Amino acid sequence: MTDPLVSAFASDEDMVADQSVRPKRLAELIGQHRVREQLDLLLQSALRRGSPPDHILLSGPPGLGKTTMAMIVAAELGAGLRMTSGPAIERAGDLAAVLTSLSLGDVLFIDEIHRIARPAEELLYSAMEDFRVDVVVGKGPGATAIPLDVEPFTLVGATTRSGLLTGPMRDRFGFVGQLDFYDPDELELIIARSARILDVPITDEGAVEIGRRSRGTPRIANRLLRRVRDYAEVRGNGVVDLTAARAALRVYDVDELGLDRLDRAVLLALLRQGGGPVGLSTLAVAVGEQPDTVEEVCEPFLLRSGLMARTPRGRIATAGAWQHLGIPGPAGTVGGGNPAGGLSSTPGLFDL
């Protein structure tokens, strides 16, 4: 039931399509004004000194541009870029091979750095601080640690869950940038820019409509733009305007707030229980999904939108959820007035 259209996690299609629309320089980056200014100061000062900048940690939800910023850092420094991910580094030897192959001033980008294996993380400590790694050769009493020098480099780590980083790892980053969700106006500019690069005719109204349903995430905005483009080319006149955007997103079950079928199913499951509280496992069973999917894919946006709240007893639906689904709430609920909740008598409820 999971719909990847409004998921902030990257699909294979996203990885290919995003290459052409990614900003290449800080000056091209839209939004994230505070982090952008801080990065600019960090990089400009490093260039003037002629030495690599401090290690950089970028934190924030998926789809906000952490990988793009890592690429921009390398481009601004005129340095080489090596990219890997935390789950791909299973052994310390894997990381040592990457580190010893770096050239002077290179940028090493590790995505999802909080998932790096502990032996590799401990090896990374000395590399970040002293630009040296100790490779252990042999086993048991005869094992020998061979020190290897590493060329000075800049590590750019990206994480969606900074709370899972260990203290020693977090302390070794000289700069920490927290990426925030984008405003609709910023997403409109991003969509217009992507449309120009992809040669997609688009009106201002079309960009606004896609932007306000993109959940504050550029990755989702670009994905919706491609789907609306497909609709406009097949069933319209090829122009992404307001009519095409609304019709296309209706076909793809993305409503006015950016909720998809799974989001609405979660809210509906809560409303069937009188608005909650409902436990995560019970909620997942009710919508036919894994608890991790509900917690990581649906909940963040529902919480941020004010449609759901967490309590010590479980998840509850807010008055906004009743209003958004057009269901009369129980007595005492803002916008409600139907003591029974009115679930079974609401026309078209199960078509949501």
TrEMBL record:
Residues 2-182 are annotated as: Large ATPase domain (RuvB-L). SUPFAM superfamilies: P-loop containing nucleoside triphosphate hydrolases, Winged helix' DNA-binding domain. GO terms for molecular function: DNA helicase activity; hydrolase activity. Residues 52-204 form the AAA+ ATPase domain. It is an enzyme of class 3 (hydrolase). Residues 343-352 have a biased composition (Polar residues). CDD domains: AAA (cd00009). It catalyses: ATP + H2O = ADP + phosphate + H(+). Residues 183-253 are annotated as: Small ATPAse domain (RuvB-S). Mg(2+) binds at residue 67. Residues 256-352 are annotated as: Head domain (RuvB-H). It comes from the Bacteria. ATP binds at residues 22, 63, 66-68, 129-131, 172, 182, 219. Keywords: ATP-binding, Cytoplasm, DNA damage, DNA recombination, DNA repair, DNA-binding, Helicase, Hydrolase, Nucleotide-binding. Residues 330-352 are annotated as: Disordered. The keyword Nucleotide-binding applies. Its EC number is 3.6.4.-. It holds the Pfam family RuvB_N. The keyword Transmembrane helix does not apply. InterPro entries: AAA+_ATPase (IPR003593), AAA_lid_4 (IPR041445), DNA_helicase_Holl-junc_RuvB (IPR004605), P-loop_NTPase (IPR027417), RuvB-like_N (IPR008824), RuvB_wg_C (IPR008823), WH-like_DNA-bd_sf (IPR036388), WH_DNA-bd_sf (IPR036390). Homohexamer. Forms an RuvA(8)-RuvB(12)-Holliday junction (HJ) complex. HJ DNA is sandwiched between 2 RuvA tetramers; dsDNA enters through RuvA and exits via RuvB. An RuvB hexamer assembles on each DNA strand where it exits the tetramer. Each RuvB hexamer is contacted by two RuvA subunits (via domain III) on 2 adjacent RuvB subunits; this complex drives branch migration. In the full resolvosome a probable DNA-RuvA(4)-RuvB(12)-RuvC(2) complex forms which resolves the HJ. Has 3 domains, the large (RuvB-L) and small ATPase (RuvB-S) domains and the C-terminal head (RuvB-H) domain. The head domain binds DNA, while the ATPase domains jointly bind ATP, ADP or are empty depending on the state of the subunit in the translocation cycle. During a single DNA translocation step the structure of each domain remains the same, but their relative positions change. The RuvA-RuvB-RuvC complex processes Holliday junction (HJ) DNA during genetic recombination and DNA repair, while the RuvA-RuvB complex plays an important role in the rescue of blocked DNA replication forks via replication fork reversal (RFR). RuvA specifically binds to HJ cruciform DNA, conferring on it an open structure. The RuvB hexamer acts as an ATP-dependent pump, pulling dsDNA into and through the RuvAB complex. RuvB forms 2 homohexamers on either side of HJ DNA bound by 1 or 2 RuvA tetramers; 4 subunits per hexamer contact DNA at a time. Belongs to the RuvB family. This is Holliday junction branch migration complex subunit RuvB. It comes from Dactylosporangium vinaceum.
